[in-house]
Specification:
Blueprint lengths: L1 E6 L13 E6 L2 E5 L5 H8 L8 E3 L5 H4 L2 H10 L4 E6 L3 H11 L8 E6 L3 E5 L2 E7 L7 E5 L3 E3 L7 H7 L4 E5 L14 H8 L6 E5 L9 H9 L6 E3 L4 E4 L2
Parallel strand pairs: 3-4, 4-5, 5-6, 10-11, 11-12, 12-13
Antiparallel strand pairs: 1-2, 1-14, 2-3, 7-8, 8-9, 9-10
Helix pairs in contact: 6-7
């Protein structure tokens, strides 16, 4: 399995990090998790291209996770691709319907299949996936691809989510702000470290990084490391991780 971080930033652009998008690939299969602003460009820069992404899995519907979704539909139509499957939490169908009601000329351009998922197990592009509800300001799901890869989506750090990720080879976890930012709906490093303590995870990548984290990596890592002694790294746009 190959996991490529297409966008590791937030709703506040830095110029270095685009908004959320993660590509999961294995044996010719691919799933794009979230499709924030800039992800369409990162797909081209990654060498994969939008022509080869026919399945999108949304964690939730905040703008920085869906902004490039309709541009992806249009790009695939212009490239001669005929379909796109979009999965996500409750309200995903209404989201696509509303977008297409604004851009009426895009209606019917491709075969757009929309499926809503709930916490539990489901299949997508021949991947077996588990979903877990997170703690965020909108309904949001974390996703786990067997024992190899887990993505937190946007969420506060809490024991249930840490248990959901336990045993994963790779965990990509929201860590939006350093400790001195008073925030809800996202974790700080100290809170994340406390919840990950004692969990068996091969490697943790911090993502969904706001500009507030710039220049503060060591401080954030030390804060996590005060409670959790695992391998913690900062995700970067276009970094690819191979998982056996």
């Amino acid at each position: 399995m190959r996991v490529t971080f297409l966008g590791t930033g937030s709703a506040m652009p830095t110029g270095e990090r685009f908004q959320t998008g993660i590509l999961v690939q294995e044996d010719g299969r691919s799933v794009l998790i979230d499709c924030g602003s800039g992800v369409l460009h990162r797909l081209q820069q990654s060498g994969v291209g939008y022509e080869n992404v026919s399945t999108v899995l949304l964690t939730h519907h905040h703008l920085d996770h869906v902004a490039d979704l309709l541009p992806l539909v249009k790009a695939r139509w212009l490239a001669g691709e005929e379909h796109l499957e979009v999965l996500g939490p409750q309200g995903t169908k209404a989201l696509l319907d509303d977008l297409l009601s604004v851009y009426e000329y895009m209606q019917g351009k491709i075969d757009l299949q929309v499926r809503e998922v709930v916490p539990g197990e489901f299949s997508i592009a021949d991947f077996d996936v588990s979903a877990y509800e997170t703690r965020h300001s909108l309904p949001c799901l974390a996703y786990r691809f067997d024992d190899r890869f887990t993505f937190s989506g946007d969420s506060e750090a809490f024991a249930g989510l840490a248990n959901f990720a336990d045993g994963s080879a790779i965990l990509a976890h929201d860590c939006s702000f350093p400790d001195d930012v008073d925030v809800s709906n996202h974790p700080t490093p100290d809170a994340l470290g406390r919840e990950l303590a004692g969990r068996d995870i091969g490697r943790v990548y911090l993502t969904h990084l706001y500009p507030h984290t710039d220049g503060r990596r060591e401080e954030m890592r030390e804060s996590i490391g005060a409670h959790y002694d695992g391998d913690v790294r900062f995700a970067e746009d276009l970094t690819t991780v191979s998982i056996e």
